[in-house]
Amino acid sequence: MSKISKFFKGGGSAASKGRGGPSPQEALARLRETEEMLSKKQEYLETRIERELAVARQHGTKNKRAALQALKRKKRYEKQLNQIDGTLSTIEFQREALENSHTNTEVLKNMGYAAQAMKKVHENMDLNKIDDLMQDITEQQDVAQEISDAISNRATFGDEFDEDELMAELEELEQEELNKGMRDVRLPSVPSTSLPSRPGKMPACHFAFLMIKPCSSSRKRAEDEDEMKKLAAWAS
């Protein structure tokens, strides 16, 4: 069994073992610690490779045995370095997969909570009651629209009367008022004396002949003379 397998198998805490396995957070923390440890190992191996390469160059052909030993150590370090590179790639892949799994788990958990909440909200809801409620709302909206239309329409009070009949009645009333006014008009009396005539004019006696109604009282005579003066002024 490799050291890394032993590390993952036996490196869990007592609390994690008691729960039947580590939590995703604990596993991710362990993977990050392992990545950090292997990265430090990489740096150490790279330093040793550079050092052994410098030793081989230093001895060269002068001391072939020491130079060859240095190159052999360099090869072993390079092999370990390649192995660590592969291990880091595997751990990185596993960490990303675990992070994604943890994210998906949290998403599903929250979706489950939301589903339970929706179920609890819908427990007291009856679809038949909802349909009846929506129907009542629609009916009340129609009633409100009818009321609004009725209020906004122009008032038609009195439109049941015939307008032509009303106009005929109005004309009769106007004619009655006109006839009454004509009856109240008082025409002047024509005096019995003749008016002086003027050339080219109608004699005033012609007017007297048409409208004469003599009066014997002195008061009536004075009024007639006054009227005659007015007629003479009009005829001149």
Automatic annotation (TrEMBL):
Gene3D superfamilies: 6.10.250.1710, ESAT-6-like. It is a peripheral membrane protein. Belongs to the SNF7 family. Pfam families: Snf7 (PF03357). PANTHER family: CHARGED MULTIVESICULAR BODY PROTEIN (PTHR22761), CHARGED MULTIVESICULAR BODY PROTEIN 4C (PTHR22761:SF77). Residues 1-25, 217-236 are annotated as: Disordered. This is CHM4C protein. One of its GO terms (cellular component) is late endosome membrane. Residues 220-230 have a biased composition (Basic and acidic residues). GO terms for biological process: late endosome to vacuole transport via multivesicular body sorting pathway; protein transport; vesicle budding from membrane. It is found in: Cytoplasm, Cytosol; Late endosome membrane. It comes from the Eukaryota. Residues 9-21 have a biased composition (Gly residues). Keywords: Coiled coil, Cytoplasm, Endosome, Membrane, Protein transport, Transport.
